[in-house]
Every structure is written in structure tokens, then in C-alpha cells.
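Sequence, C-alpha cells passed on for absentees:
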Amino acid sequence: MNKCLVIGGCGFLGRHIVDKLLERGCSVNVFDIRITFDSDMVTFFTGDLCKKQDLLPALQGVDAVFHVASPPPSSDNKALFYRVNYEGTKSIIEACKEAGVNKLILTSSCSVLYGGVDIHNATEDWPYAETPQDYYTETKILQEKVVLAANSSDFHTVAIRPHGIFGPRDPQMVPTAIEAARAGKMKFTIGFGKNTVDFTYVDNVVHGHILAAENLGAGKVACGKAYHITNDEPIYFWTFIGKILQGLGYPAPRFPLPYTLILLISYVVALFCFLLKPFVTIRPTFSPMRVRLAGTAHYYSCERAKKELGYRPLVKLDDAVRLTCESYPLLRCGKS
């Protein structure tokens, strides 16, 4: 790869992909709705990814496209998710073909398999979730299907499915956990702490994307496939959260609450918020979806990526937690 375009390159994962591509000596274009960082080594383009005419200038001379853009899962805006994740992705495919770009690497998600109940060591061959837990997942399924279906003899596509991404510059998982801890909401666990989950350090996710791109092309193994990329170290959900909190000086959650009871309460609260929506917007800390994610098992096999792409996590989980906590000095207990 000599020249790459990262769509969504100003976001959390996208920025890390940009950094790695530059480190490898690639020429990099970034396309995003807004520019959030400066670099003399990057050519920036802004626009609407649903508009082919906005995308085409960024695609000129490009060998491979990394499509990382998506509204955050917490957005809860069905129309926005559908427009960006599905309609926008179709626009990207059309623009790539028109510009003569024949490699597209999609950032998908392991959540496309998660239906709200325990899922153990799932492979890529498992069926898509029949009951997606939110609009994000619902549209990521549509997005992944259209990308993989677009694979052909002269247009090569692959989908990378990470799970539980965290690391430096993470705008969601770590800040949300610390905000809840500061508010005194992280004293309890949902369930009894024995639900196993995958969390994946961002550098490992980037590594999976790069390997997929290198194995994409005529006759190559990755064409038209999805790959799970995890740390390959499943861990109890609340044990991991405790490691993050303790790494930043907060106590780990200690008091278990029954999962079924909390799930029921979350549905009651969700109904209450829905009824009040015409008058005031309330975003509860624990929605039914978040309760399910915190109280069920969901971890995934990355054996396909290991066998076909040569994937191995570059950073082990304990080191990843330490590096992540060190990158958030202002979130340490007592800081503001």
C-alpha cells in the first residue's frame, strides 16, 4: 500500500490507523465530517460521506480505503445510523469503483452477532443477530452485508470485527466509567461478575486492519470475509472494569445486584424516559442494552484471523490496561 484513505480518520480508531499508516511510510488522506487534529503528513478532506462528489477528490490515486466512520453507538438516532452506516457505505463503494480504488477495509463489529443473550467463543460463521440490541448494531449488520457482497474479481472487500475497543484517546468506554465512578454509580456489579467478555486494545485492532489490507487483492485469502479481532484474552466484565478503575485510583465495584432485577428496572426506566421524551430528554446510565452488555457473556474466537492473516495481539491485556490508564492523567481520582 502506497497511498491510503481513512474515512473517519479523525475519530478514535481512525486516528490510530492514520498514525500506524504514517509510521509504515504510507501516504495518507483523511476524509471526515470535521478535522480535529493537524498534521503536515496528512492530506485532509471534509464532506458528507453519503455524497459521492464529496468523496471522489479524496480517492484520487488511492490504493486502499479504510472505512472507519460511524456515529457513536450512544447516539440512539435510527435515521442517522441508517444514513451513515448503510446509505453512506453504499456511496463509498460506488465512489471507490468510479475512482478505480479496488480495496475496501470496513470496520465492522462483533456486535453484529450479539442478540442480548450469552454468546461464547463465537466464530465468524455464526448467523447475524436476529434481535440487534440497538440501531447501531442493526445498521452495522446491513453495512457489513453490503460491503462483503460487493467483493468481486476486481473489487476486494473485507470486514474487521473488533470488540470492546479501548486505549489512549478513547472517548467513550474509559471516560464513561470514570464519570460513573465519580458520581458514585460504580459501587455495584450487574450480576455476580462471572460473565466473560472480550476487550481489545486499540493497537491490536489497528494491527488487524493492516493485516487484512495486506491480504486483500486478486486471489488473496481475505477477500469477501469477516474477521474477529480481539485481545484473545476473554475476561470477566467486572474484573476488567475494576482494573481500569483501580488503575486510575478508584475502587473496583464490589456489591453484586441481581441481573434479572436490574434488567427489569432498566426497562421501567426506559419506558419512563420514553413517556417524558416530548418534554425532556433523559439518558439513563444503564439502558436495557447496557445492562445486557454488562451482565451477559459475549466473547469471540479470532482463530480465523490467526490462521489466515497471521494475527497475534501485539499488546497483552494487562499492559494495555496500564498504557490506557497512564494516558488519562486528568481522569485520576482527585483530578479534574
